[in-house]
Write a structure and sequence with these properties.
The structure is a single chain. The chain folds into two domains: 1-44; 55-101, no CATH class. It has three helices and three strands; from the N terminus they run αβββαα. It has 102 residues and is α+β, with helices and mostly antiparallel strands. Strands 1-2-3 form a three-stranded antiparallel beta sheet.
Length: 102
């Protein structure tokens, strides 16, 4: 009789710990998914197309452009090249841009 009692107690203990481990794994997965979503939201739109490193916004002639923290590349959003060229009318970029418009 004591043997059956021990077996039943052992089975209940095993079931308890399996449930505890399962709950813990679910909590860890949920935490990891949340952290992944938060990190993707913070950086997904700001990655260098060339090397994948984060881009950092910086001001160039009062225009916000994106510079890669890895390779140093400069990335311009729509309209930013025109804005930079427009402010550089006397410079090489402005002259090049004006020549392309003719």
């Amino acid at each position: 009789m004591a043997n059956k009692w021990d077996e039943r107690k052992k089975a209940q203990e095993d079931e308890y710990f399996v449930k505890k481990e399962k709950d813990l794994i679910e909590k860890l997965k949920a935490k990891q998914e949340l952290e992944t979503k938060q990190s993707v939201k913070a950086t997904c739109h700001m990655r260098c197309p060339k090397c994948g490193e984060p881009l950092k916004e910086r001001s160039f002639q009062k225009i916000l452009i994106d510079q890669c923290t890895g390779c140093g590349g400069i990335w311009l959003d729509a309209g930013e090249l025109e804005a930079v060229a427009g402010r550089e009318e006397g410079g090489w970029l402005g002259k090049l841009w004006q020549r392309g418009e003719k």
